[in-house]
Write a structure and sequence with these properties.
This protein is mainly alpha-helical. Helices cover about 60% and strands about 5% of the residues. It contains six helices and two strands. The relative contact order is 0.12.
Length: about 110
C-alpha cells in the first residue's frame, strides 16, 4: 500500500515535489517508483533514500505523540489565563497544578 502523504512529505524534505498516482493495490517498490515524476532543483533520490526519509519523519512524528496528547488535555488559552489570574488574586496554584498533572500523565519519551 502506498502512503501518499508520507511520500509527499518525504519528497518535500528532500528538496523536491512528486507527481504520482497510486491505487490501493500498489506497493512501494522499484517498478512503482520508476513511474514517479520528480520536480525540484535536486536530483531524484533513490527509493532507499526516500524510504529512509519516510522512516525518519515517522520516527519524529511518533516521538512527539506526548505533545499531541498534552495539547488535547490543556484548556483553551483564555481559560488558562483566567486560571492564572485567579491563582494570582486568590493565592492558589490551580493552573500550575493542572499543567503539572498533564505533563505527568504524558511524559516525554
Amino acid at each position: 500500500m502506498i502512503d501518499d502523504m508520507a511520500i509527499t512529505q518525504a519528497a518535500s524534505s528532500l528538496g523536491g515535489a512528486v507527481s504520482f498516482s497510486a491505487s490501493p493495490d500498489d506497493v512501494l517498490n522499484e517498478s512503482w517508483y520508476a513511474k514517479v515524476v520528480w520536480e525540484g532543483d535536486v536530483p531524484k533520490p533513490t527509493l532507499a533514500e526516500l524510504k529512509t526519509k519516510m522512516d525518519e519523519l515517522q520516527a519524529d512524528f511518533d516521538a512527539k505523540q506526548y505533545q499531541r496528547d498534552r495539547r488535547r488535555q490543556y484548556p483553551p488559552i483564555g481559560d488558562q489565563l483566567d486560571m492564572q489570574y485567579h491563582d494570582a488574586v486568590d493565592g492558589t496554584t490551580t493552573w500550575k497544578d493542572h499543567v503539572a498533572a498533564v505533563k505527568a500523565a504524558n511524559p516525554k519519551s
